[in-house]
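Journal club prep, notes for RB
We'll compare a predicted complex against what the paper describes. Inputs for the nicotinamide-adenine-dinucleotide case:
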Amino acid sequence: MSQLSRSSGSLDDTPSTPGKFKPDKPSPYIHRLRFHNLSKFTFYSAFFLAILCFFFLLSSPSGSNPRRSLGSYGGSDWERHVTRSARRRSDSGMTVLVTGAAGFVGTHVSMALKRRGDGVLGLDNFNLYYEPTLKRNRQKELQKNGVFIVEGDLNDKPLLHKLFDVVAFTHVMHLAAQAGVRYAMQNPSSYIHSNIAGLVNLLEVCKSANPQPSIVWASSSSVYGLNSKVPFSEKDRTDQPASLYAATKKAGEEIAHTYNHIYGLSITGLRFFTVYGPWGRPDMAYFFFTRDILKGKVIKIYETADHGSVARDFTYIDDVVKGCLAALDTAKKSTGSGGKKKGPAQFRIFNLGNTAPVPVSELVNILEKLLKVKAKRLVLPMPRNGDVKFTHANISLAHRELGYRPTTDLETGLKKFVKWYFKYYKEEKKKISAW
Ligand SMILES: NC(=O)c1ccc[n+]([C@@H]2O[C@H](COP(=O)([O-])OP(=O)(O)OC[C@H]3O[C@@H](n4cnc5c(N)ncnc54)[C@H](O)[C@@H]3O)[C@@H](O)[C@H]2O)c1
């Protein structure tokens, strides 16, 4: 508990609310107050704080309100939620900390682990990169299934230590990150905050945990950058990133190697290829194309400089989840303890793709068919915004070592996505009109 009262001591204290986060500039008014009327300012601040504390204490201390119990960590009620969620059904199961649990992949992986009897605890900072209600609704789904998400940031070292004090995690499934390729040009620091500083902070805590957990984490197909040799193999070069996002994922792979080498952490990196499906990410093309086609809005389809098509190795979420679980199941134990390496530890990297790239124009054809609406297409040359022309995974290594075998083609997967989309937004509309 004493850790909780200390200041965070994190590597980077910038709040991770990408997009919406703007550092406060002191207003001239505050400035004047600071120099000319400090005591008055202090008095009003104290008064305001006292009122805030009063209302805070008045609110129910029970865990029935998820937002309140998640927002403030510590205390017996909070610990009960944490331990209950992390409890596995049998001794042979795992106890997994899933970071980014309110995210798209994190929600599906957490649900799958819980369903088969593993103990799961989520961690997410619920940042505002995309619709916060979607993250909250995923959280509700997980809660219904017995998965509790601690609301906190990867960079909060005392919180992470606290979680490892309360639960002896056997595994960490690290999915929290600032995702999105194009957004890196708008808010580069959010990528450093989550994908670099946050990763190092997590690895620091894992390395000194006793026992050390085995770690499986999400890298990305974007590390292949401007490579033109296809399909992309794990043996190919990854030193030509086309975006800051890709560069942070590549850096993550190198950082992971360092922690494996020095501290004996067992680490597996998974390079996901354009994952899609129900509860997906609204910033991804298949999702916002669906929304815009239904609204009758023009959708932009990019082509290469020589009028070639841009293609992606779209991978259905259930296939990716199977790959994640297989990586956890085959992960060997870390060899260190309390920050000291005792021997060499496992270090792996796998592609998790579908190995069947589809041009984006074909994605739109399928959506038109499923939505029964003609898209208003605007074909444009690809801007230099971090996107690459194509992705295509060689998955033979994952097949050999993880038994990974994707089974969902794009049309089948999109059908499931569209079904979810209609149901989800119908419910959301109902909720809004009931207000
Ligand atoms: N979805 C894809 O197509 C794809 C492709 C390649 C790689 N990936 C990687 O897979 C992982 C999961 O992706 P996703 O699609 O579920 O993304 P997502 O944005 O839906 O999920 C990431 C979650 O992490 C949380 N998060 C971000 N920074 C955090 C921080 N500092 N502390 C705590 N929580 C934080 C976010 O709130 C979010 O809920 C990410 O690492 C992403 O980079 C995804």
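Talking point for the session: Residues 16, 100, 102-106, 124-127, 135, 153-154, 175-179, 194, 198, 218, 220, 272, 274-275, 281 surround nicotinamide-adenine-dinucleotide (CB under 6 Å).
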